[in-house]
């Protein structure tokens, strides 16, 4: 079965990563929608997409479209995903799923009622480095996990700044852009859910009053503490992910990235060893599992429920940073 895709949003991430992943995994990109008809036309021509439209209804009601990839700004996701589901289209949606948990649950309900797949595009859980860390923890290689540390402070390049820095109503700021990825990757690697957060945010001048940096701590089930630092403002920092347990530590370097890069080192009483990883494209892994789910042969790598968990955690971080208090994470699941 060849899954035929419509793109809702003529986005950079689709152009740089997702269109190629669709094609590499046996799918076809058949249509693209942008509210600007001229942008839709030029984007389709530049990316070899046969059709272009300027409204969601036309795209989701196209009988030649089986699934949609939504990469518009965050406040648009709910209505677009619900329209696609009601039209019988499967949905891969960028994170965060929505601006509120109520909206995310409405998206999940629409997909369930229509018996279509709804997935969240959390690419980092597909990295072989994170899979290696998860498997090592599950195998007891570091004993009982005690603490984790994620450093995901990067520099947001000029061509991606725009609404992420100056449009609060669209979910601007580093928390709903990056911290949600931390939350999902921590859940995936630790195999546990977060229960509470504390955080401080900063507006270091990159945006117009929105947070461009945040630090905090998530408390997970079993009492595991996870420190995180996310930013748009650090030009020269590296990324990383560490998990420390009673019998050892896992140290991932340059692993919070869209590229299949980085290393993971296991440190314990026997010394150090680098865990084996591979260079498989993270988005191709996501599309492979999505196509399988559409065919009824599995589930997406990150489900709607995973997206609800990361959104709930991100919203709790926003609230904690504003209030200065610890905030419990409540998903409604």
TrEMBL record:
Domain GFO/IDH/MocA-like oxidoreductase: residue ranges: 131-251
Enzyme class: oxidoreductase
MF annotations from Gene Ontology: 1,5-anhydro-D-fructose reductase (1,5-anhydro-D-mannitol-forming) activity; nucleotide binding
Source domain of life: Bacteria
Gene3D superfamilies according to UniProt: Dihydrodipicolinate Reductase, domain 2, NAD(P)-binding Rossmann-like Domain
EC number from the UniProt entry: 1.1.1.292
Pfam families noted in UniProt: GFO_IDH_MocA, GFO_IDH_MocA_C3
Gfo/Idh/MocA-like oxidoreductase N-terminal domain segment(s): 3-122
Record keywords: Oxidoreductase
Protein name: 1,5-anhydro-D-fructose reductase
The species this protein was found in: Rhizobium mesoamericanum STM3625
């Amino acid at each position: 079965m060849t899954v035929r895709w419509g793109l809702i949003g003529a986005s950079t991430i689709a152009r740089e990563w997702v269109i190629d992943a669709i094609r590499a995994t046996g799918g076809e990109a058949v249509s693209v929608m942008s509210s600007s008809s001229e942008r839709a036309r030029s984007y389709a021509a530049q990316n070899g997409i046969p059709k272009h439209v300027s409204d969601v209804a036309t795209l989701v009601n196209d009988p030649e479209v089986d699934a949609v990839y939504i990469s518009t700004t965050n406040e648009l996701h709910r209505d677009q995903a619900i329209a696609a589901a009601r039209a019988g289209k499967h949905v891969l949606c960028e994170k965060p799923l929505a601006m509120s948990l109520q909206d995310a649950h409405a998206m999940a309900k629409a997909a369930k009622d229509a018996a279509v797949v709804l997935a969240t595009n959390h690419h980092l859980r597909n990295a072989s480095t994170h899979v290696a860390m998860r498997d090592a923890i599950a195998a007891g290689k570091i004993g009982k996990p005690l603490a984790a540390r994620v450093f995901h402070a990067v520099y947001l390049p000029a061509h991606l700044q725009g609404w992420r820095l100056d449009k609060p109503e669209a979910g601007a700021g580093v928390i709903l852009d990056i911290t949600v990825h931390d939350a999902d990757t921590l859940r995936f690697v630790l195999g546990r859910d977060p229960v509470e957060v504390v955080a401080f945010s900063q507006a270091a001048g990159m945006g117009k009053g929105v947070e461009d940096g945040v630090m905090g701590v998530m408390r997970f089930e079993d009492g595991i503490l996870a420190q995180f630092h996310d930013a748009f403002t650090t030009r020269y920092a590296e990324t990383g992910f560490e998990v420390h347990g009673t019998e050892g530590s896992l140290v991932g370097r340059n692993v919070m990235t869209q590229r299949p890069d980085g290393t993971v080192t296991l440190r314990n009483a026997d010394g150090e060893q680098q865990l084996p990883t591979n260079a498989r494209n993270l988005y191709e892994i996501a599309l492979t599992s999505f196509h399988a789910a559409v065919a009824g042969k599995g589930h997406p790598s990150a489900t709607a429920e995973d997206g609800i968990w990361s959104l709930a955690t991100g919203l709790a971080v926003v609230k904690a940073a504003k209030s200065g208090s610890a905030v419990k994470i409540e998903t409604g699941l």
